Amino acid sequence: MKNTFLNKKNLTWLILGVSFFFLIQLLIQVGIITPYYRVTMYWICLFAILGVSLNVIIGVTGQFSLGHAGFMSIGAYSAAVVLRSMPNLTGLFLGMAIGALISLFVSMVVAIPTLRLKGDYLAIATLGVGEIIRIVILNMKITNGASGISNIPYLISWPLMFFFVFISIMFSANFKNSAIGRACISIKEDEIASEAMGINTTKYKVMAFMFGALIASLAGGLYATTYYVIKPETFGINNSINILVIVVFGGMGSLTGSAVAAIVLGIINNVFQPLAEWRMIIYALALIVIMIFRPQGLLGTSEASLKAIFSLDTYKNALKGLIDLVTLRKFRVAVASIGKGKQR
Amino acid sequence: MLEFLQQMINGLSIGSIYALIALGYTMVYGIIKLINFAHGDMYMIGAYVGMISVTTFKLPFVLALPATMIVTGVLGVVIERIAYRPLRKSTRVAALITAIGVSFFLQNAVSRIMGAKIYTFPPVLENRTFMFYGLRFNTQQIAIFVTAILLMILLQVIVKKTKVGRAMRSVAVDQDAAKLMGVNVDRTISLTFAIGSSLAAAAGILVGIYYNTINPLMGFAPGLKAFVAAVFGGIGIIPGAMIGGFAIGLIETMVSGYGSTLYKDAVVYIILILVLIIKPSGLLGKNRKEKV
Is B123 on the interface with A (CB under 8 A)? Predict the structure, then answer.
């Protein structure tokens, strides 16, 4: 593909994005998307941003982070604190900018030592980081401790939300497709081999981590103004797991997959509203089932492309995966082996 | 000085609980290189099973403890069969995500079944305080400490002196070679899960007695701390987990005794990160060169 800014692919995505924006805007204006559905829509947008940003860390670079909600909370609290004295859009942007800076700084301080760790160690270390951030916020005066900050002005609107979804997905996609992104993918595939090829693995891992943290803090700022109230426990491990579910469900390494997963889960959450208290159980089971039967998630590492949307093979594969899931093929094998106790 | 010794006593009794949980982490990690995220929740399950066996079945402590350990051990084996065994050959991240899923499933399933409320653990052990050279001792603390030490000795005997223990050690070193020598690898791994889960269950009962209350989310923080303890001592090494558990218990008590209670959890995580940076193999671990 030619390396020009306005090639065919970028143009099509741009046109698609803009027309999607106006379509939703129209639906809001006409009144088909009621304020009730708008809540779901904003949830989807927020978690699409979070999922895509975590996917840059987990899926593209292969570094397992469980502290994403921590960086989100930095953004949310910065925005909320600034909005207290400047309750307008300028305040929101200023707060988000401050949050982004703090988040970048914290993630750098955290990343440089911890990213020397591998896989599951890194997961626990980042989990610890998320918890440390939460405990610090819980004990600070400016964040109002355990009761959190309430009465945050509601400044969110569809154009604003869309703007942030669009730029965060665009930046993430550019990150993935750039030379940096390719270096990150090679780190995911084989860290030692890519180091041998002359890639400064620590540098690229830190870059990906900081990038993800930056986007997460932006999403946090939007979260604060969308939901009026933020508390330290909002950003606990449960939230990190929510984001992780989106990444895993969409496919680790597929940014569009995360966006699709956010949409699907948002709709599922809305439809199953009466079953809200079962939601975490279903999420937990979904994680296990997906890992056993379809570890690559919905899209695997491939991106949704226009070509794929109009290709029959995509649907064939999706159907095959679905049949595997529904018939619980592997599960039956696993259960069958319990009785026999046979060795594999 | 007296104050310091008093803190030591408190730290050792909570540390023995962390050590019990850490043992399960370290054994499972040693044998299949999986951070069993759900291990902290096995401890929570143990507390609930213990409470039910004491309140509903009216068992005395000496019977409730083994009964709980058996029930939870069986549950551990079932979880291993259903959730972890199909993933034995897949990536470690996939296994880790599954473990997180299991952890959240257990937490939420228990809070659905039992209700999210906090239960009071019945006082099965008498709680008498006596003074000894100006130090306050508590019969419960002593019981916890003694039970934990006895279980650790039992574990050492199983691992070092019995045939299954030798099988466990051999699988931990080299799974394929152990298989060739006629060790039933699957059964050994199941047994490891059973032992680890039952130790966590014992810790669960002891904590229930010590703190009087149990709730579905009680496993998360101690589980993480026990993991820190296992890493601190050198993950995969059984004596390391014991040392690490006591060390974390002591550090935590000292921080809340002399510093701030609010930051005691943060300090534990900071220790984790420091250990991982300075000596990732832990106190007793050996450094291993990575190979392609």
Answer: no
Q: Confirm whether B119 is domain-assigned.
A: yes
Q: How many domains does chain B have?
A: 1
* B232-274 confidence digits (pLDDT tens): 888 888 888 899 999 999 998 888 888 777 777 788 888 888 8
Same domain for A28 and A38, yes or no, is: no
Residue A343, pLDDT > 50, answer: no
Q: Which CATH number fits the domain that encloses residue A179?
A: 1.10.3470.10
* Proportion of chain B above pLDDT 70, given as a percent: 98
Reported pTM: 0.81
What pLDDT, on the 0 to 100 scale, is given for residue A308? Answer: 64
**Is the domain of A19 the same as that of A115?**
no
Domain span at B213: 2-220
Distance CA A101, CA A291 (A): 35
- State which of A273, A306, A335 marks the end of a domain: A273
A284 Cα to chain B: minimum distance (Å)? 4
Please indicate, yes or no, if residue B48 is contained in any of the structural domains.
yes
A interface mutation test: which of B89, B108, B183 has the most A CBs within 10 A? B108
Chain B touched by A123 (CB under 8 Å)? yes
To test the contact with chain B by mutation, choose from A116, A134, A287, A337 the residue with the greatest count of B C-beta atoms within 10 A, namely A287
- Those residues whose C-beta lies under 8 Å from the C-beta of residue B108, and which sit 6 or more positions away, are A280, A281, A284, B216
Longest CA–CA span in chain A (Å) reads 68
A:B CB pairs within 8 Å: 130
Q: Are A62 and A120 in contact (CB under 8 A)?
A: no
Q: Enumerate the residues of chain B whose CB falls inside 8 A of the CB of residue A125.
A: 272-273, 276
Indicate whether A18 and A46 sit together in one domain.
no
Domain-embedded: residue B41:
yes
- Do A39 and A9 lie in one domain? The reply is no
Going along chain A, which residue ranges are E strands? none
Q: How far is CA A26 from CA A34, A42, A142, A165, B288, in A?
A: 12, 16, 40, 18, 61
Residue A213 tokens read as 């943290």
Range with the lowest mean pLDDT among A28-32, A56-60, A155-159?
Answer: A28-32
Tell me which of A68, A112, A132 to substitute to probe the interface with B (most B C-beta atoms closer than 10 Å): A132
Question: What distance in Å separates residue A242's CA from the closest CA in chain B?
Answer: 11
CA distance A10 to B61: 69
Of A74-78, A151-155, A319-323, A333-337, the poorest mean pLDDT is in A333-337
Within a 10 A sphere around the Cβ of B224, how many other Cβ atoms? 22
Residue A312's pLDDT band (cuts 50, 70, 90): low
Of residues A250, A54, A255, the one with CA closest to residue A174: A255
- What is the ipTM for the molecules in this complex? 0.78
- Ranges of residues in chain B with a pLDDT under 50 are 291-292
Residues A174 and A134 in one domain: yes
Which domain, by its residues, includes A27?
1-32
* Contact map slice: B 6-25 vs A, CB within 8 A: none
Q: Do B100 and A244 touch (CB under 8 A)?
A: yes
Neighbouring-strand partners of residue B120 = B213
Q: Quick one: A47 and A65 in the same domain?
A: yes
In a domain, A176, yes or no: yes
For the cut 50, the answer to whether the pLDDT of residue A341 exceeds it is: no
Residue A130 lies in a domain: yes
DSSP A252: T
Q: Of A273, A300, A335, which marks where a domain is finished?
A: A273
